[in-house]
UniProtKB/TrEMBL annotation:
Matches recorded under Pfam families: HTH_31 (PF13560)
Record-level Gene Ontology MF annotations: DNA binding
Matches recorded under Gene3D superfamilies: lambda repressor-like DNA-binding domains
Transmembrane regions listed in the UniProt entry: none
Domain HTH cro/C1-type: residue ranges: 119-172
Organism: Winogradskya consettensis
Protein name: HTH cro/C1-type domain-containing protein
């Protein structure tokens, strides 16, 4: 769930040393209240700690620890993880006790193609530079494939990479998790 924050909400979220906790409680209750699976009898009742960490120039991760409770007097520990982009775009994840509720803010794992590519290159004694030269690619492109952040999909790239690794294009397509060529 992506949301836009008001300036007051942003300030309350970024302030580790207190800030306006009522605004933060209202923001978190509003956020979880929109989730269809959230039991609305549980409300954020207390914020105990706010920790911020800058991930890069535009992103920050904020961990908000507190308590949720019901009218019946039951309480449970709460941990929100909020990823903030720029001046106020956010994505929420919440943990109540050990149960994860909401959308994950963690990036997906790299596709295993990179691990297999690295193993094939090692077995054949090929460096990143060798593969880049044989395929006519930049070394950074080969590095992205090795890290699993890029899977070759274009026919020319698949053919060049298959030739460099001494594989058939069909085998490389299978390794990359692509459907058989039409």
């Amino acid at each position: 769930m992506d949301d836009e924050l008001t300036r007051a909400q942003f300030d309350a979220l970024m302030n580790e040393r207190g800030g306006d906790r009522e605004i933060l409680v209202a923001l978190l209750n509003e956020c979880v209240g929109r989730w269809p699976w959230w039991d609305r009898s549980w409300k954020v009742i207390e914020i105990r700690e706010v920790r911020t960490r800058r991930l890069n120039t535009l992103q920050r991760r904020v961990v908000v620890n507190g308590v949720v409770g019901r009218d019946t007097g039951e309480t449970l520990p709460l941990s929100f993880t909020v990823r903030v982009w720029g001046p106020g775009r956010v994505r929420f994840e919440v943990r109540v006790v050990d149960a994860l509720v909401g959308e994950s803010v963690r990036d997906s794992d790299p596709y295993p193609f990179g691990l297999i590519l690295c193993a094939l290159m090692d077995r054949r004694g090929l460096s990143r530079r060798d593969v880049a030269h044989r395929c006519g690619l930049a070394q950074s492109t080969v590095a992205k494939m090795m890290a699993g952040y890029m899977v070759p999909r274009e026919r020319g790239l698949l053919a060049g990479l298959a030739a460099a690794l001494d594989l058939s294009v069909g085998d490389l397509r299978a390794i990359a998790g692509l459907p058989a060529d039409d």
